[in-house]
Design a protein that fits this description.
44% of the residues lie in helices and 24% in strands. By secondary structure, the chain is α+β, with helices and mostly antiparallel strands.
């Protein structure tokens, strides 16, 4: 019985000390984290810490120049054929206004719908694509799905005859640089 009591008391002391340690570390955690972020990542990995294994990381000089500094990947700037509009490419949204796999009629139908949309909405870019076995007509360059859905609603109002087959797709888009 005494042995059982001794184990119970030891367990309770261990539990109380663990909870106290967790509270103290959570109070000072944000300060420690911000100072750790300022340190060089590889230096902190290579540092000897008692009770933990030893890590040795060998780094290339090009990695050392990149680590620890926030940077966005550079975007390539493109220009149209005339050089008047500059844009960058990114993952965005387009409206797929047509998709067909009938090799006799789909190309002509895609081109016909493209000319109708270009006549009513000249500000929107339209592209006819052939991805075997499908001919597709995609409209616009939108950064967000909401923008694409608003324009798709306008297209459906203007062209109710082919509004049901329109939907928003993820695609590479050209976003103009202001």
């Amino acid at each position: 019985m005494k042995r059982y009591l001794r184990y119970t008391i030891s367990f309770l002391l261990l539990l109380v000390s663990t909870v106290s340690y967790a509270q103290i570390s959570s109070q000072t955690g944000s300060h420690t984290q911000s100072s750790t972020q300022k340190k060089d990542i590889l230096q902190s990995l290579n540092a000897a810490v008692p009770g933990k294994g030893k890590v040795t990381v060998y780094e290339d000089e090009s990695i050392a120049q990149v680590l620890g500094r926030p940077m966005a990947p550079p975007r390539t700037v493109y220009s149209n054929a005339e050089g008047t509009i500059q844009y960058y490419k990114m993952r965005g949204y387009k409206i797929q206004a047509f998709s067909g796999n009938n090799q006799r009629t789909s190309k002509n139908e895609a081109n016909r719908k493209q000319s109708l949309i270009n006549a009513s909405f000249p500000e929107l870019e339209t592209v006819v694509l052939f991805e075997s076995p499908f001919w597709r007509l995609r409209v616009g360059n939108f950064e967000t799905r909401d923008e694409a859905q608003k324009v798709m609603h306008e297209l459906r109002k203007a062209f109710p005859s082919f509004g049901k087959e329109m939907y928003v797709v993820v695609d590479e888009v050209k976003i103009p640089i202001n």
